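ugh finaly. both done.
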Amino acid sequence: MSSIVGIAPYARDSGNKQGRRFIRGGRKIPRDALYMAVLAGKNGFQYLKILYDRLVNNFKPKKVAIVACMRKLLEVCHKLIQQKRVFVIK
């Protein structure tokens, strides 16, 4: 699911050589929607705020933390759709 949206890292490895991981491709509109949802939610939505703050406090770059939150939000949305449930803030 995350590779369709374009937030899954691809490895550039060959033999014993380990290359860098990069994120490229995917559908722009869902990726942009997830990005804006995380930007809005990382300050107000407790679930994303805890994840984002934990990653930033562990010295991850802010963009990396945002992409991790995007992936987590995508997983939650996918699970809700799969189970035909409605999201409720508790």
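ok and the 2nd:
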Amino acid sequence: DEKRDMEWSSPWGIGFPGWHLECSVMAREILGDQIDIHTGGIDHIPVHHTNEIAQTEAITAKNFSNFWVHANHIKVDGTKMSKSLGNIYTLQDILDKGYHIEAFKLLVLSKHYRTEGNFTWEILDDAQNVFNKFNAWSYLQFQNLKSERLVNNFSGNNGAIASLKRFVLSDLDTPGALSFIHGMVSRTEELGADSQSIAEATRVIEELLGIRLAKDGDITSEQKQLIKVREAAREAKNWTKSDELRDKLLEQDIEVKDTPNGTIWSKI
């Protein structure tokens, strides 16, 4: 018989560690006799985690983990992923089709971790649109907004950032958090917000949800000057020049949007 990497003789025959024991040993070696949070898939509840608890607590006589967080699965087109069905996709497959990796994160976070998710290219299209909206909003942190009703409703105990944190603290309610961000973005479009508040909200979103927004940073002074020249052309009703400058900015992956409060831009 082929010899295993680890096996020993015993009075009861050849013994070797299984994966249940491996996890117990690693957890105890690295984290100690007790841990605060243990994660894993829902399929590990009846066997693997039950074994981990039994064998670890038999050795330590202590409660193994204070909290268990079990994640549900993501299916593809409503079907379990399988090589035989050819419905297994990698992150590289998603990138190769031109999607942003943050869009896939949003797809995953749109379902609560204990709820079964579903992956389709159509759902990923929707997630990409959501990312584009959030990303364009985040780039406002580099711009001087001209709203006469400028408000800063993001900070403070009752502000948007505090509310966003409460969603995450409530059993990792990521769908609720994303819905709240949608509302925050819409309120900014309606009422305005100062650039510092948007920068802080962007930082908190990445910290809590891992979604990176406006990661390419500010545009150059030359590109800002082009936007000013285009605004002047619009004020002079020189639509031909305005369109030419819009196209020139698009060639540099900068999209401009004309609003009642002036021109805003985002990177695409």
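summary for the 2nd one i guess: The chain has a mean pLDDT of 90.
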